[in-house]
Write a structure and sequence with these properties.
Chain B: InterPro entries: ELMO_dom (IPR006816), ELMO_domain-containing (IPR050868). The complex is a heterodimer of chains A (about 200) and B (about 300). Chain A has about 200 residues and is an alpha/beta fold. Helices cover about 30% and strands about 20% of the residues of chain A. Chain B folds into 2 domains: about 130 residues, no CATH class; about 180 residues, no CATH class. Classes of the chains: A alpha/beta (about 200), B mainly alpha (about 300). Chains A and B meet through loops of A and helix 10 of B.
């Protein structure tokens, strides 16, 4: 977190405050901002198109999830959980947009990867995208939460099978967790987020 | 606080003001609106507000009855005449208006009723289409999807139902079935209408979407614009345009037309914004929505696609 202290690397801090933090004129201001900084986290939601990222985002923000559209670009929402203020970034998963994912890696506190458990045809593709993400320098050591979404669908495979398929057990350089969920019913979503928050606290 | 006091004052004094005007002008409020306001949105807005505020039992029953009929989508070209006649008769009797002395009133009031409750019915219809998910098992849905392809890409045939070719018209992967999401069949119908009614505009916009620098995903942006059009319809912002543009009962066509205008305008707005990549979509769309909202805030606004463009 040390690189956040001057605020220059924090996209969520307005320009004005960058200067305030830099000048360090008032130590009181400084420490207050520091506390606020530490409790504002950046979560990055990635995954293939139609995995359910936007539905998970809306579910976290307690918004209507019946009218989701395919994400062209990205969505961002601020959510409160476990005393943390979370900025959740949901980036579109279409093949054409995936090259832009890297623009959002910086300062990520938790990487959330969403998998459509019923899309068996593309399990290999999603595994490949994930393994490429895990090699990214900017995401090194960032805890990984995998949502095995759409567990309500008949032909969905279990979270354990997904963990196996993605090779999660071979990950040694970071904490990871897999959480089965049904985003459209809001089931399992909060549980995953709780893990994410606890994991940051422990650090 | 001021707003609260104002509503209170308004609520108490409205009947006195109305009573006074009624006796000085010899006309009821509905008549004054019909004669005083220009036709289209300004008149329909005022009539809508007046009917909503009315404390007269007959008028209240009439409003509840019309709401009910619209919610059940029972206003059709066949039933419409009778419904409007009933509504007009109720007002004539309740307000003691002599129809021979005020022939234009009945006509103009009927027109407003048609617009107001046609719009309400349109909201219900769009919502039903939206709730109908795209289903690959439904032959109608599949046919509509294939129709969209042949309209947009007349010189190229699909090699298979599931193919990468779909990305050429801006779907995300090789099967569009998962791209309609929460917009359901409404999203597809909007796209098909655009491609069918404005073929050259649609292909013109499609070619823009393949621009090497300012390109975007045509179908996906289209589905997002369905969502935006629906939002504007639902919160009533689209009333201005629909009231001003409808010569007859507003039906699904009116929504499709509104959508086509938004798509055509968005395309221009996007290119003018010179986005560095597709990731700017949300912010540009937000700006676009604000500009449309500003335009709709003017009660005389009516959107028309420039037909000249369609002939280029």
């Amino acid at each position: 977190m040390s690189e956040y202290i001057d605020g220059t690397n924090c996209p969520w801090i307005p320009e004005k405050q960058h200067n305030m933090l830099k000048s360090k004129q008032s130590t009181q201001h400084y420490s207050k901002s520091l506390i606020r900084l530490r409790s504002k986290l950046r979560l990055l939601l990635l995954g293939l198109d139609n995995a359910g990222k936007t539905t998970i985002l809306k579910s976290l923000a307690s918004e209507d999830i019946t009218q989701v559209t395919p994400t062209q670009g990205f969505n961002i929402k601020s959510v409160q959980s476990e005393g943390f203020k979370l900025n959740v970034w949901d980036i579109g998963g279409a093949r054409k947009i995936r090259p832009y994912w890297r623009n959002y890696f910086e300062n990520t506190d938790v990487l959330i990867y969403v998998v459509d458990s019923a899309d068996i045809k593309r399990l290999e593709e999603t595994g490949q995208e994930l393994s490429e993400l895990l090699l990214e320098e900017k995401l090194r050591g960032v805890p990984l939460l995998v949502y095995a979404n759409k567990q309500d669908l008949g032909h969905a495979v279990t979270a354990a099978e997904i963990a196996e398929g993605l090779g999660l057990h071979n990950i040694k350089d970071r904490d990871w967790q897999i959480q089965s969920c049904i985003a459209i019913e809001g089931k399992g979503v909060k549980e995953g987020l709780e893990w994410a928050c606890k994991n940051i606290k422990r650090k | 606080m001021f707003k609260y006091i104002w509503t209170l004052v308004y609520w108490y004094f409205r009947p006195f003001v109305k009573w006074f005007l009624r006796h000085t002008t010899q006309m009821c409020e509905l008549q004054r609106i019909c004669y005083g306001q220009p036709s289209g949105a300004p008149r329909a807005f005022a009539i809508e507000e007046s009917l909503k505020q009315s404390r007269n039992a007959n008028i209240r029953t009439l409003v509840a009855y019309l709401n009910d009929i619209a919610d059940q989508r029972r206003i059709t070209t066949k039933t419409e005449r009778k419904i409007l006649e009933d509504a007009i008769k109720t007002v004539l009797v309740t307000k003691n208006i002599n129809p021979t002395a005020h022939p234009t009133f009945a006509k103009s009031f009927g027109k407003c009723v048609e617009l107001i409750w046609g719009y309400r019915q349109l909201c219900v219809e769009c919502e039903e289409l939206r709730k109908t998910s795209y289903s690959p098992e439904n032959p109608d849905h599949e046919q509509l999807l294939l129709k969209l392809w042949s309209l947009l890409m007349p010189y190229e045939s699909l090699e298979a139902r599931v193919t990468k070719q779909w990305q050429k018209i801006g779907f995300q992967g090789d099967d569009p079935k998962t791209d309609f999401r929460g917009m359901g069949i409404l999203g597809l119908e909007n796209l098909v209408y655009f491609a069918q009614e404005y073929p050259s505009t649609a292909t013109h916009v499609l070619s823009h979407s393949n621009h090497p620098r300012y390109g975007y995903a045509f179908a996906i942006v289209g589905i997002n614009l369905t969502s935006m059009a629906l939002k504007l319809l639902r919160d009533g912002s689209a009333k201005t345009h629909i009231y001003n543009s409808s010569k007859t009962l507003p039906m699904i066509r009116a929504f499709h037309q509104f959508y086509c205008y938004l798509f055509y305008q968005f395309d221009g707005f996007w290119i003018e914004s010179k986005p560095s990549n597709m990731m700017e979509f949300s912010s540009i769309q937000e700006k676009f929505e604000n500009s449309i909202r500003m335009a709709l805030a003017n009660p005389s606004t009516v959107f028309r696609i420039n037909v000249a463009v369609d002939n280029i």
